[in-house]
Amino acid sequence: MKKQRLFLLSLSICLILILISCEMLNSPIIDLDKPKVAYVVNKGCLEDKGLNQLGLEGINKIITEFGVKLTTIEIDKDDEEAFQKNFIKAAKTNDLIIVVGEEFKNVVNETATNYRDKKFIVTSNKIRESNVQNIAFKYEESGFLAGVLAGKKSGNKEVGYIAIKDNEPNKLLLSGYMSGIKVTNMSAVTRLLSGENVKYIEDCANVDLAYEEAKKLYDKGCEIVLTAAGKASEGVFKAAKEKGKYVINSGMNAEEVYKDYIDNSLASLVVHLDKVLYESLSEANKGMFKSGEINKINEGLKENTIEFIINDNLVNSEIINLINNYKSGVIKEKIEIPKKKEEVQEFKVL
Description:
Subcellular location: Cell membrane
Distance between the termini: 71 Å
Strand content: 15-25%
Oligomer: single chain
Membrane topology: Lipid-anchor
Structural class: alpha/beta
Main location: membrane
Keywords: Cell membrane, Lipoprotein, Membrane, Signal
Family: Belongs to the BMP lipoprotein family.
């Protein structure tokens, strides 16, 4: 009996070592009675009609199915002391912490190291800790399709771009956008590359600032503006309606969340954080939390994680067919889209 117990103990230790070496934490995330999950976003950006809100929808679905206890936390990243304090508190009082935004990277990295018994899901970050699941998206693919549409629909006119900040996701989105425009409206790329038709508002809730910046772009001759400004994107739609211009929205489906501006909404780029979080939390609830370096998630058009919804009342079938052809080329990896602005000049589709 003693030998049998020793054998079972040795076997258990071997299995644990194998799992750790593969960087997969497959133990249950917490007490299955009431899993505690915290959702951390920038202050004022929870219901942003974009990525944060989509993520919340995915979590809410899990709440309905598995009875997860959710705490939403909006942190002011500009108040560094309070920011770190609140984040550590979230880690102490929850079992799994979901973080949206690359500005949290340093604090998440430090906290994940100090709280190995907790699990983290992060977006737009590159954290190598074994208790962290990294989620990224191929924003350049969605930007490319938006650029093909903007370039074709604008004719020989200018196009613009408005985002919250110049972070990694928005750099990818802009690079893809410029690349798509380059193949359909070469003349419009110049002022995007120079930054003249690119605006950053630094606040996901500042509708008025987005409105003013969009008006300037439209007054300068921009026919279409791609907006990735969260809740502030409503200001871009407002300006487009006043000026009789168009918007491509990066966020939720504009035909659903900006119904008053449907005649100005050409298309929507929807990055389905909701689906990814739903799947990740479902796996975690079953004790199959996938984390570490080898389990990074980076999805796009091929995985149907990025959806491009076109308003076919404003876009003719010829342009839609062209976009679908380019989409097919991206999915089949026949088109390699630049991830950096510096690579756009050399980009061409064979």
